[in-house]
Amino acid sequence: MSPDLPPTASDADPARIAAHPRVQRVPSRDLMLFIQRDFLSPTECAALIDRIELRRRPSTIADANGDDVFRTSETCDLDMSDPFVAQIDARLAAFAGIDPAYGEPIQGQRYTVGQEFKAHTDFFDPHGADFPRYCSVSGNRTWTLMIYLNQPGAGGATRFVKIGKTVQPETGKLLAWNNRNDTGRCNDASMHHGMKVRSGVKHIITKWYRERPWG
Ligand SMILES: O=C(O)CCC(=O)C(=O)O
Ligand SMILES: [Fe+2]
Fold first, then answer.
1. Which ranges form a coiled coil (predicted)?
2. I want to staple 199 with a disulfide (CB 3.0 to 4.6 A). Which of 48, 59, 101, 153 is the partner?
3. Which CATH number fits domain 14-210: 2.60.40.1500, 1.10.10.10, 2.40.440.10, 2.60.120.620?
4. Could you tell me if 92 and 207 are in contact, meaning their C-beta atoms sit under 8 angstroms apart?
């Protein structure tokens, strides 16, 4: 496939991801998780942080669980018509090898000291009350791509609690994981915790792909 043309596949090809330069696969039988440092430059990260600062709102969760402090960060829906955001979206799709049409709009997340996103999965619970609302059109989430835009003073790691792997935030570092297991079902081993920031502010972007085109 030409690197200049957007991918047309509905799902990622892990071999293609693994073949990108500097990509590391986290050793685990239970979860397909890749890391690439320096996916974005510090300048690109700073430009995204500026946009997140301008449009942030309190973060939400699906399937309310009675815990008011489950996700205490702020969220920003990035403007996908902004050419700068659009070219980052195209690079994410090219990295995953997924047709950009399957992607949700990129979100930014911002955590100040003490804020976190407790252990959760990114897929929607097929038996949860909110499943029809979030998934009837585009299906469930498939892959998550997430990029740390900065390194907070302390804290803010992402802990994959079921496989015992903790990833430290570093400016420009990309994580990519499959939210499904080998049989294509929702994978509980993808559960992860955006841990409390202890000093400074943490910014990330998240990109979720769906089973069917986003709409
Ligand atoms: O902040 C993190 O490290 C994780 C964020 C996350 O899991 C999410 O936004 O779904
Ligand atoms: Fe998550």
1. none
2. 153
3. 2.60.120.620
4. yes
> Model confidence over 149-158: pLDDT tens digits?
999 999 999 9
Which of helix, strand or coil describes residue 17? helix
Decide: 194 in ligand 1 pocket, CB within 6 A: yes
Q: Is the CB of 76 under 6 A from ligand 1?
A: no
Whose Cα sits closest to atom 5 in ligand 1?
A: 194
Model confidence pLDDT, tens digit, residues 109-129:
999 999 999 999 999 999 999
Q: Is 207 helix (H, G, I), strand (E, B) or coil?
A: strand
Judge if pTM exceeds 0.90.
Answer: yes
Ligand 1 pocket, residue 192 CB under 6 Å: yes
Average pLDDT (85-107) is 98
Residue ranges of domains in the chain: 14-210
Is the separation of the CB atoms in 137 and 75 below 8 Å? no
